Each structure stands twice: as C-alpha cells, then as structure tokens.
C-alpha cells in the first residue's frame, strides 16, 4: 500500500499507464565509495570502467531502492533503468542481489560511448518517448542530478527532486 495515495491515484489512475525510470548511482545505489566525480558532477568514465567485481559488489542500496522494488512488483507500472554505467556481469549481479534486476527495460552505456551524461540519457530516452506504448503514459524520472531532471522534465517527465523522494515509499 502506497503511503501517498494521492500520488498513486494521480499517476496510475488504476490502469497500466505509468513508466517509472530510475537512474542507478546516487539514486537507488550508493557507489560513492568508488566514484571519482568531475567538476560537472559526472563520474570519471575512464576510472569507472576499471572497477573490479569486488568493488561493484560493494555498492549498497539507497532508500529509493525499496520504491523501485515496489514498482517492479506492481503490474500497473513499467520500470526502466536509465544509467550511465556500462553494465558488466557484476553490475547485473548487483542489480539482482538488490532485487532491482527485474526492470522492464535497462538502458545502459555502450563501452565506447563517452558522451556527457545529459546528452547520453536524452538520446536513450528520446528514441522511446514517442513509441505508441509509451506516448500516452504518465512518466516519472528519478535522477540525483538536477541537469538530467531538467532535461527529462522538458520531455514531459515528472522529475521529483531528491528531497521529495521520501514521499515515494510503501507503508
């Protein structure tokens, strides 16, 4: 049962018409123990790609991960992951161990993709936003970065800021 029934009613309207998109790092996963951040707040990709399985499996969940699991379990919600990670086998194992590997769609960075995070995520999402199965649905995007939330809100996503994520949880 959702704590904030108004949000659920507003977004779901009792039908399968919502898409919830989750970033991983800094949103549902705490990987801060291994992240080198540049001056724009983006992860240093060269360093990121060198991490071992042991380092990746040392990541932990953040509070929004429970809401993501609830969304995955809810037949009325389609869950997407949109991450700047290049997903390795260890990353996929981590998602499964945290109970968030069951997303309907996982959008992850190709190994040779070095675009800045905003343009990368916009390109991934724009390819899908006007598909008939997506177009008419309510869409919500969870990301810890304000620049990405701003870009997604311009595409029509609801983009709650992190200080409001506490509203998104189960009783």
Notes on the protein architecture:
The chain has 171 residues and is α/β, with parallel strands linked by helices. The chain has eight helices and six strands, in the order αββααβαβαβααβα. Helix 5 links the parallel strand 4 and strand 5.
What are the segments in which pLDDT stays under 50 over at least 5 consecutive residues? 1-15
Multimer state: single chain
Query: Would you report the number of β strands?
Result: 6
Strand order of the largest sheet: 5-4-1-6
Layout of helices and strands:
Elements: H1 5-12, E1 18-22, E2 29-30, H2 45-48, H3 53-57, E3 60-61, H4 64-73, E4 77-82, H5 89-97, E5 105-107, H6 117-129, H7 132-135, E6 138-142, H8 146-153
Helix pairs in contact: 6-8
For this entry, give a set of tags.
alpha/beta, two-stranded antiparallel sheet, 8 helices, 4-stranded parallel sheet, 171 residues, disordered N terminus, globular
Give a concise summary:
With 171 residues, this protein is of the alpha/beta class. The chain is built from eight helices and six strands, in the order αββααβαβαβααβα. The longest helix has 13 residues.
